[in-house]
Amino acid sequence: DEREQTLNALLVEMDGFESTHDIIIIAATNRPDVLDPALLRPGRFDRQVVEDAPDVRGSEDILLIHAAGKPLASNVDMNTVARRTPGFVGADLENLLNEAALVAARAGRKEIQPQDVDEAADRVVMGPERRSRVISPREKKITAYHEAGHALAAHFLEYADPVHKITIVPRGRAMGYVMQSPENDRMSMSKNMLLDRIGVALAGRAVEALIFKDVTTGAQNDFEQATNIAKRMVTSWGMSPELGRVALASGNESYLGDYEGARNYSEATAKLIDSEVKSIIETQYKRVIALIEDHRELLEQIVDVLLERETLHADEFAMLIRGEPIPELMPVQEPPVVNKPSRPRDKEPRLPPT
Q1: How confident is the model at residue 354 (pLDDT cuts 50, 70, 90)?
Q2: What HEC string does 165-227 produce?
Q3: What is the reported pLDDT for 262?
Q4: Which of 55, 61, 203, 251 could, after both became Cys, cross-link 288 (CB 3.0–4.6 A)?
Q5: CA quadruple 1, 263, 249, 206: dihedral sign
């Protein structure tokens, strides 16, 4: 078809270059999985350079570039912003600072404050706040317990990332969320880290079942995350004692992160995989149930503050954990209203000649 004709023409042209021409061909793609092997053999595109998302240091440098010319307050720490946004590429970071400038302008501020950057990050990741949505008191209470459960598990599980923010303000399709911020860049994750991540994901449903003796549909995304991690632990990373140190997933990973190709194991092995995935999830679920029961009083305190404030930041959450009183909320200052002079209108509309 036409794709093969284009590929063949490109290969012929590349083979026509001689070493005396001093020509270097550079190409870029975000779909390396669909490249023809003929393009990647020695003599053609024989060197591959993977350009991944920047690390914390790289993100900080990129933020400093895009912050030039913007009225940033002196207390905006770019290192903190970089740690707050793992996985953001250059375009995301530029969009983040532009959004922060808009948030500050809407609030009538002449400088971008840390809370403006934090709000912009939430907007980029989760979407704008939906405060206009009418939520019943019971639904709001369930959300507060759900998110408090995530936060408690993230704090007390040894290998979980620390809590950056807890909120029960709806954004996008989420009724609330807990934002965690990794302390360091990671190239790999240990088994304990993965198990704690599963535990944090399951803690919201665990609290619902423990407090209300009933469950909601709010844990759908939590279950998807937990199941995906557990399945890859078993089939890709050799972390199941029953199946051993074998890779059972297909090696063809697609651009979207899913694994493609035919299953290369028997029905009996598939049954064992399902059993191991369920065992990992159930073990972590029981673990977080016990953790929440041990810290029931602290859970209630977090919920009470969340219902009053709707959002808790890392320093406020740490004060709650230590049993210290949290400062009173400052009244929200509305942006100043500027009365613009009305525009004069013509007495009669002017019609075009017929």
Answers
A1: low
A2: EEECCCECCECCEEEECCCCCCCCCCHHHHHHHHHHHHHHHHHHHHHHCCCCHHHHHHHHHHH
A3: 54
A4: 203
A5: positive
Contact criterion met (CB below 8 Å) for 114 and 73: yes
Spatial contact of 56 and 83, defined as CB atoms under 8 Å apart: yes
The pLDDT of 38-43, averaged and rounded, is: 82
Query: Which residues are annotated as catalytic?
Result: 147
Nearest partner of 143 among 306, 292, 300, judged by Cα: 306
pLDDT digits (tens, 9 = 90+) for 61-76: 999 999 998 999 989 9
Phi, psi (rounded to 5 degrees) for 306: -65, -40
User: Is 259 within 8 Å of 305 (Cβ atoms)?
Assistant: no
Cross-strand bridge partners of residue 240: 244
Helices (H), the chain: 2-15, 56-67, 78-84, 90-106, 114-126, 137-156, 191-212, 220-235, 267-294, 296-309, 314-322
By the 8 A CB rule, do 307 and 222 touch? no
